[in-house]
Amino acid sequence: MVYFYLVLMAPKKKTPINRSGVLYISHLPRWLFSEHLKSYFLQFGKVRAAKVCKSAKTGGSKGYGFVKFADEEVAQIAAEAMDGYIINKNRLKCRFLSAEECVPHIMKPGGRIKKKEPNIVSTKIISKKNRQMKKLKDFMQKYAPVQVNEPPSSIKLDSK
Length: 160
Description:
Layout: H1 2-9, E1 21-26, H2 34-41, E2 47-54, E3 61-69, H3 72-82, E4 86-87, E5 90-91, E6 93-97, H4 120-143
Antiparallel strand pairs: 1-3, 1-6, 2-3, 4-5
């Protein structure tokens, strides 16, 4: 019983707090995806997550993203090294985000999952045809009312 008491009273070992570092990267090429971004920054150390922000409307890249490193020091080194790096004629701007600047949900995926959107051009054509058909129907009802006549008795209709 004494041993149990000593274990409870023993001081706990303080482990150093390992804060993860987050980078904000802007001026990304439009074709760059999260996987590409992660592979670029793996050369510096362990990357926990990488995210390229996308437009909810088009699904295309907004031109900026975030990379989360396992170590804060590695993130600072990567920010200094990759700031001004040129990818496909785009000069990247990398900035280390402090704990105060970084919000907890920064690396979570976006809110809604969008289904495949119809082609905008075909949607415009269909809506234009629908408007034209509606105008035509309104015109016909106003100026040329349709009279329904019964078919002549000589024509026999098949009823099913």
